């Protein structure tokens, strides 16, 4: 049976939709970031302390829900196709933004945030979609473009959200709902199915739809299991940014909200440029393994310099090195998809997204806690950069694991193990 995506024009239109979907997901996420704390504070009766408690609860609940729901969406997309899962997720997210815009109490807003965690897991099906419609040689470039959508969304979202929330803290939610609904309409007419019926999983398997079962699935693919550890460590390390960057920059350099915003914008721009201009040619010339090791190595160097930075210019000099870590994620994703059968791409992507969610549960507390400990007056050593050193250690371990599990001999063993009967 011929796939509707065999035509290059159809493939380009489908990949453009996936790009727009990821862009809107992260744009919507960025839109509500500036206004959500103020809305929570208003619903908490003006108490900043109570608002901080609820914001922490929101973040943890969001990560936990994504941990649970990502493998479910992956298995659903393997069984019923990518298109319905992606479109229903976008529709659910649009409805949920309306729900949060109308929420008149903290418990109702919390419920809305939990539901948004359910539908935001559509990235799982989107990653599987890319694996369906691209050749192995082109996947790193395609995942790089998705990374550019991620960066662009997190650059533009907070800027636009800050302006809208200045008018009304609920306005970003309405705007995000409108954007997401437009994306649903766009996808309904543009997005073809990427997984034909004969390549789908024959049944919905609950053993792989739960997060623990989905992680066990990774053991069937030894190389994927090692790369999953690298992806986890990489995402865990990057949680140092949202956890301590604002507090660290204020303490070390005296940067306030406006300066922090410009620096984060610069990081986003660098990330987009690297994803769009460098990753495709770099992977094509040097290979996915070299790109992965290069990205992780640059990340280690960047985080070490961040940790030692006691003046602003040192931190700024390190930004290009830290941002070159962007090379690692598309290369790792491309290597993973090479080892996995089409009918299991969704569930494997779900397992990987669950690992990222675990990083979101563990990372903020670990990095914020270490920052607080090493700046406390009673600490045996004053070391504000400690969280960045910890992040560098994680990436260093990732380099060692990636070096071992991406060797040609390891790839051959992984392929042989994957085709053995289970």
From TrEMBL:
Major place of residence: membrane
InterPro entries in the cross-refs: MFS (IPR011701), MFS_dom (IPR020846), MFS_trans_sf (IPR036259), Tet-R_TetA/multi-R_MdtG-like (IPR001958)
Gene Ontology molecular function: transmembrane transporter activity
Matches recorded under PANTHER family: MAJOR FACILITATOR SUPERFAMILY (MFS) PROFILE DOMAIN-CONTAINING PROTEIN (PTHR23504:SF15), MAJOR FACILITATOR SUPERFAMILY DOMAIN-CONTAINING PROTEIN 10 (PTHR23504)
Membrane-protein topology: Multi-pass membrane protein
Any one annotated GO CC term: membrane
UniProt protein name: MFS transporter
A Pfam family reported for this protein in Swiss-Prot or TrEMBL: MFS_1
Domain Major facilitator superfamily (MFS) profile: 14-410
Subcellular location: Membrane
Gene3D superfamilies noted in UniProt: MFS general substrate transporter like domains
Keywords: Membrane, Transmembrane, Transmembrane helix, Transport
Spans through the membrane: 12-32, 52-72, 84-102, 108-130, 142-161, 173-191, 224-248, 260-279, 291-309, 315-336, 348-375, 381-403
